[in-house]
Amino acid sequence: MKSKTVGKVISQKCLAPGIYDLEIETKIAAEAKAGQFVGVYTKDASTLLPRPISICGVSDDKKSLRLVYRVAGKGTGEFSGLKEGDDVTLLGVLGNGYDIEELKKIATSNGVLLLGGGIGVPPMLELAKELNAAGVKVISVMGYRDDKTFLLDEFKKYSDTYVASEDGSVGTKGNVLDAVKENGIAFDCICSCGPLPMLRAIKEFAGDKPAFISLEERMACGVGACLGCVVKTKEVDHHSHVNNARICTDGPVFAASEVEI
Amino acid sequence: MRKTEVTIAGVTFKNPIMEGSGTFGSGMEYSEFVDLNKIGAVVTKGVANVPWPGNPTPRVCEVYGGMLNAIGLQNPGIEVFCERDLPFLEKYDTKVIVNVCGKSVSDYVEVVERLSDEKRVDMLEINVSCPNVKEGAIAFGTDKGALENITKEIKAHTKKPVIMKLTPNVTDIAEMARVAESAGADALSLINTITGMKIDIERRRFALANKTGGMSGPAIKPIAVRMVYQASHAVKIPVIGMGGVATGEDAIEFMMAGATAVAVGMMNFVNPYSTIECVEGIERYMDNHKIEDITEIIGCV
To answer: Model-level pTM?
Structure first.
């Protein structure tokens, strides 16, 4: 059940310039899984709406959530100042996560290929962990701008891990798909989160193989009421009846073949 | 024993709290957070005669103390609404106000007629902030003649009580209130959102795909209180006040300005428990100020 609740900061550290790693003790962690997100509230009353931030990790005891986010504006700027013991108000957990059982059924020979780009990297980590725990072979290809990478060592715990960087300073020079091609990576299906141009390229690249992509959009309510964060869908969707699915509640994970991006 | 009931056009609400249309769906999404039985009414998102796809994204953006939206009244159309949303609301002991939108008078009339025999519908609220496509896309509610005409037409096609939801994007809200009243409106609700704009200075682009959007949230509350005061003093029919309501105290303020009931809008998005907290806030205020009947404070300033 979703709720708005106050959690407590366990720790926060800076992983790379502008990238923060925030661990929060919260009751909503009990139901959290890979691909879901939470709304994080600022203390500044001029910025009222919760900031949607994806879940990078759920602690083994299901008592805390790890959020790895990029400082993009006033709200996330405030979050970067949170310290151990601080209260932080959350709304969640929101959205549907990845369907681990379904992925397990699909990934019978070559495994699941995880593609994360930039701030799309963090949500892939919890997915790598959950797939690994379910006995699914995982290959991770993470893309960064330069050598200021983050979370790579942790991906190595759960998967064969490859890197791409735009400036070529680490791994393959180029994007995640360049790295997939360069390394001749075989896969049964793709799960991905990253900027829209990357997701468009992945949808194209996947061809007949299943690809699941995590979308983002400007959101207000986060619970499916305001209809702010919609994406065009191929089929008439069950809720809107106008080929507009709600990213917050019908997603944020969609089969790439079902959405028009 | 405190009495929180209010009556509008013969419909009695257990308390004066409802929602701003479009901020609460048909109640389904928020039924996970609040007990709909405890709210005066559920005000549905605007519904048209046919499905509307709405605007391109981004549809929402945050502004100081509020937000802008240009959803474009996306809705699944009246048939889906009657088959899915009304049966859902059947389960709850609350009043149901269906918000109606359209692009022409005949669009509105079609929806109003379709709803006339639906027992679960207690009242209709007419969104006249939609562009009238037959008249140069000027919003019905910004033109006296258009407002008068649409009010009369709707009243002629339904026996359900009709609330005309006024737009604040006019020069003289009192005049618009009088026009709607004399054309037969049973009640008024205001304010709808105030047209605004935000520019993303990093990208040199409009923040919303639609360029303009309706502003809502606590930042607009003083404007809303002023307009509710002006409108309610210009007419004899009841007024439902809204615009930035976050707490029971805000609701009390609107009632003192002249509102008989009060709607919570954008704040549902910020705090999904807002409606219930407003109900509890009103009750606390009544206890603290030894008010036995909430109607005592309506228009008391």
So the answer is: 0.95
